[in-house]
Amino acid sequence: MRFPFKTSYNQDIRLFRDRVDVFWYGLLAVAVLVLPLLMDEYYVGESTWVFIYGICGVSLMVLVGYTGLVSLGHAAFLGIGAYAHAFFIMHGAPWVVAVGLAVAITTACGLIVGLPALRMTGIYLAIATLAFSVIIQEVFSRWESVTHGFAGMKVDRPVIFGVAFADDRSFYYLCLFFLVIVLWLTRNLLRAPTGRAWIAIRDSEIAAQSMGVNLAIYKSMAFAYSAGVMGLAGALFAHKIAFLAPDIFNILLSIQFLLLVIVGGLGSLHGALFGAVFVALLPPLIAILRDSIPDSMAEFAVSTGITPVASVGAAVGAFLAKPGVEAGIFGLILVLVILLEPLGMYGRWLKIKLFFSTFPMYKASTFKRQKSYMRSERLR
Amino acid sequence: MSFFTADNLSINFGGIKAVDGVSFDVEQGEVFTIIGPNGAGKTTIFNLVSRIYEPSGGKLSFAGRDITNVPPHLIAALGIARTFQNIELFEHATLLQNLLLARHAHKRSSFWSELLFLPSVRRLEIEHREAVEKAIDFLDLQQYRDSLIVNLPYGVRKVTELARALCTDPRLLLLDEPSSGLNVEETEDMAFWIQDIKNVLGITVLMVEHDMSLVSAVSDRVMALNYGRPIATGVPAEVQAHPEVIRAYLGG
């Protein structure tokens, strides 16, 4: 077990705890930079989803995980960002300008949606944001002069300052770049007074207020920042799927984002990334299993002579190919995570890390929590 | 003009007059305690002072300024800090983060500079940290600095709340039942700390408390309250011996 020896206040402020952390994050950076050169282009394309979902995850994590405000309408912000970006590109705006405007517009929308959030919490806020996303989806399909409605909108790969990001590999690096920027900016806010104010609002509004936090300003700020980040994700999303149609930005996508932050682990940026890996890579994983299980099981049956294995393999393949199975598996995992690991994948990661760093002294009860003491409900 | 004045303060919840025309003055540098049976309106007075409740009548003034209409989030910046009866810490943050949040009233960095974490933000953060470390040293919380609040025992949480209130650099400290849930030894520590806060830090204390040993040990003046009305004010021994107070507590 490592105990960093602290000799300066800067050690609690800086991005990485110590050299060991720098080493591991450096190793991760090298891995994500080198991997696309070794992988098949198809897998590079699928991995790009991890970064786009990662940006979405950071966006929702700020709102749900840090400020404690639930949103069931984040697909709408993604859509606003995507459509705004595509619209400005189509009208000849340079890429950087189009992204900037898309982020600005989603931020403004976030501010407006954030206003009712000042008076609502929990399930009521979830319903309000859900209503917002339904309205926005309707706007996408009706406002044809801008969005082209159900005829859809084609979006080409980005050309930035004359450099084309046409193939999957270069686009992978572009998305990675923006994810790192978003992580850095968000981490900066979270280690500064603004981030602490958000955490304070999540844990006790009344105490936050008594310590000088203006609830209205910081809640709208969280909404605006979250929406702005989502707008950036939307711009990249538009390039990634290459064709925008209103029904993409539906409530299922919003729920998927919520699933992402919960499965990843609420209240940590690591959780947003773990969740993104999970949400982005589960569908291709299912697809790979669907295609490979029947064949490999059949081969196994031929080589060993146990013929029933082949039919089991075929049945599993057929089951995975059924429509709705993917959503079912997502749902099952969500239920299991909430039941078995409320801290999400990040919580599990912490436990595994602790197990190895304290081996053989690990105690399972280290993470046990006492139920919280009585709190002053009367002030709510 | 007194340091802090409540003048004819009232609030109604529906037909119930929770606080009914309460007036009192707190002089600079004294410990003023409000006692009274359950439901007498003590905590309600605190919530009125920290502006969480809107008074239905009366005036509050602090350091020569009328604060009856100041919004609640500006109260801390004026120099009034409080603790809560049932501990309102930020449970899923570390003790250090809790105390740093108390510096929010002194925040000088802008959103944009924080977004980029400019050197000025780092400098301000270290200034805040130095202020926080003073409170940590004052209340002996060094060993808990990096613990999450959910992992701390009740007694330490109580002290943490006191530390958090001190981190706002208050001139008037509102303590809502500082000894509730503490054992005899912890209560004695609390009494020493309240005396130190008054004598060493020179902070005026307005306190709600049930534990009479603590009240008589630290209070300069006591006000007894019953059914939202003051029934006696004076030095602790005087109020404790007051027939109205005895009747309020014992009935009859």
What does this structure look like?
The complex is a heterodimer of chains A (380) and B (252). Chain A has helices at 19-38, 41-66, 74-90, 95-117, 122-142, 144-147, 168-190, 193-203, 205-210, 215-241, 251-264, 269-304, 308-321, 325-340, 344-358; strands at residues 153-154, 159-160, 163-164, 243-244. Chain A has a domain at 17-249. In chain A, the strands form 2 sheets. A two-stranded antiparallel sheet of chain A has the order 1-4. Chain A is mainly alpha-helical. Helices cover 72% and strands 2% of the residues of chain A. In chain A, α2 (41-66) packs antiparallel against α10, α3 packs antiparallel against α4 (95-117) and α11 (251-264) packs across α12 (269-304). The longest helix of chain A is centred in the last third of the chain and has 36 residues, at 269-304. The radius of gyration of chain A is 23 Å and the shape is globular. Chain B is of the alpha/beta class. Chain B has one domain (4-250): P-loop containing nucleotide triphosphate hydrolases (Rossmann fold), CATH 3.40.50. Helix content of chain B is 38%, strand content 23%. Chain B is built from 10 helices and 10 strands. Chain B has helices spanning 42-49, 75-78, 95-101, 111-116, 119-138, 154-167, 184-199, 212-218, 236-241, 243-250, and strands spanning 4-13, 16-26, 31-35, 57-62, 65-66, 80-82, 172-176, 204-208, 221-226, 229-234. Chain B has a 6-stranded mixed beta sheet with strand order 6-7-8-3-9-10, sandwiched between helices. In chain B, β7, α7 and β8 form a beta-alpha-beta unit. The longest helix of chain B has 20 residues, at 119-138. The radius of gyration of chain B is 19 Å and the shape is globular. Classes of the chains: A mainly alpha (380), B alpha/beta (252). The interface between A and B is large, with 38 and 50 residues.
